[in-house]
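User: What would this chain look like folded?
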Amino acid sequence: MTMINSTMTQGYPYIGSGPYCYTNSFAMMFGAAAPSTAVIEFATGSPFGMQLIGGAMPFFDPYGWNPEAGFDGALAALGWTSEMFRGGNAEDALERLRESLQDGPVWIGPVEMGHLRHQPGMTGPIESDHYVVVLALNHDSVLMHDPHGYPYATLPLHDFMTAWRAETINYGGPFTMRTGFKRLREVSEVDVIKASIPSAIRWLSMDGSHDMPPGSLGNGEAAEALAGLIESGCGQELRGLLVHFAVRVGARRAADAARCLERAGYAGAARIAAEQARLIGSMQYPLVTGNDADAASALRVLAPTYDKLREALESRS
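Assistant: Here's the prediction, encoded as C-alpha cells.
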C-alpha cells in the first residue's frame, strides 16, 4: 500500500470516536479540570509497546500491561488522587456504590461489556473489559454515562451487577470502583507528558517481572509472530479482535503519543510514534477485506520501531 504525502500527516491529531473507555471515564470524573484525553492516555503508558498474550492474543500496548497497571501512575502524573474499592459480595458492593453516589458520580470498572445490554448485540459475556461512570441508582436500574457512545444509558440492576462482577475479565477483581477524586495540584499538560516519560521507557524495555502466560511475546517479537499468525490463516476470532478493537485503539494511542511527544520537545520520538500510528492504522482495511499479506507486511515494518522509540526516549531526542 503506497502512502501519498505521508509527511503531511505526521503527528496530525485524530479527533473522533474510539475505544477510550477508561480515559473518557477519567475525563468525566475530572470535570472542568480534565486535561485532553490524549494526555490521560499517554500517562497510563498504554502506547508504549505491543504484546501477544499466550502467543495468540494481540494488543498494541506494553508487554505485561493492563489498564489497572497504569492508573495509579497516571493519576500521580496528572496531579490527582482517588480511592479504589473492590471485592466483597454483591450486596456489600451495591451498598458501597449507593453511599458513594451521595457525593457524586462513581467511576466503575472493569466490567464485562457483554452484559451491558443497552449496547446493541450484547447478549452475554464476550471477555471484553469496559469502564463506565455511574450517575444514579434506583431500586431496579442504574443510570450511567457509557463512553462507548451511550450518555445517560439505563440498565437493569441485575445486568449491571453481573457485568460489574467481571468474572470473565482476566485482570482486576469483582466490583471495582473509584471515588473521592481530588485534584492535589495543578500540572500543565506538557509537564504531565514529561513526568510520564520514565514510565514509557520502562514499559518499552519490558523490565521487571510480568505474570504472563507461556508463549507470550512483546514488542518486535510480538509483531513478527502476529504477522506469521495472520499469514498462516487469520481465524475469525483473531480477525474480530484486531478489526473491532486492537487496531483501532492501537493506532489512536500511537497517534496521541506522537502529538504528546512533539509537544514535550521529543521530535525524534514523535516521528517514530507517528510512523507506528500509520502502520497500525494501515492494517484495518486489509484485515477487513482479507488482504492479510498487506497486514502482515505492516507488522514486519512495525517490529523494529519499538526499540527505536525506546532509544529515542532514552536519548531525549
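The radius of gyration is 19 Å. If you want, I can go into more detail on any region.
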